[in-house]
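To: structure desk
From: M.T.
Subject: fold request, one chain
Message: Could you run this one when you get a chance? Sequence is below, nothing fancy, just the single chain.
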Amino acid sequence: MTNYKLLVLDVDGTLIGHGAYPSSRVTRAVEAAKQQGVTVALGTGRATEACYHLFRQLGLDGLHIVFDGAAIVQWPSNEIVYLQALPPRATKRVIELSRELDLFLEIYAHDFYFIEREGPLADHQRRKLQLEPLVTDLMSLVNRVKVVKSQVLAANPDEKIRADLLTEEMEQLCKVAWSLDPSNGIYFGNVISRTVSKAGALREMVDYIGVDLRETLVIGDSYNDIGIFKVAGTRVAMGHAPDALKELADWIAPNVDNDGVAVAIEKFILE
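Reply: Done. Structure tokens follow.
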């Protein structure tokens, strides 16, 4: 019987690569871990709604870390167990800066997803997230909608340079946690409350379900996983992860295209 009670999986670049769903090998490994009595949770920067199809496919009833740690939700009830909203003045400023710097911006409430303009990135997100956004004047949401996170996308080096300028200014108001999706080369900047992190959400989760941090296994691939790696019992980095994450890892898995999550589950849980 495995010593692990909780397995936390990052999504983009970890659980899934190209497309919207994990591979058949990864799907089988997750099911096998559940059969061993391990609770499997997602720990992702994605919105809850962008994980519905994964919850259903993998049968992941229970608690999940979403919005980069800004919320913990219960599936399938969709009950919010924990939520830390983005301050309205931070929402207002990120909208202003994204317009000034010509960057694609998304705004997420718990159950709604907003954009201001159509284009290739909007189409990409529709396919990847399996979601249909509401197209609106984003400034109209400030002080009217409880925003959990904003997300800035940078699809090329020029956009990333401009996004770094946005990050520098936004750090006066909140936190911007960046990750890179290796399947498409797009950078994602999660704009969240200053106190939010996947690490803090993991601590909340283990207290809620009665698991010791030493009994947790976390698998991730990007910079926004650094914090959770510092508190988890066992840390597995994907093969394509940055060196900063690999240095904290107990083991390096193959990359997402080579079913690294399945290999890690087979090694740490099923053996």
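Reply (cont.): The radius of gyration is 18 Å. Let me know if you need anything else for the meeting.
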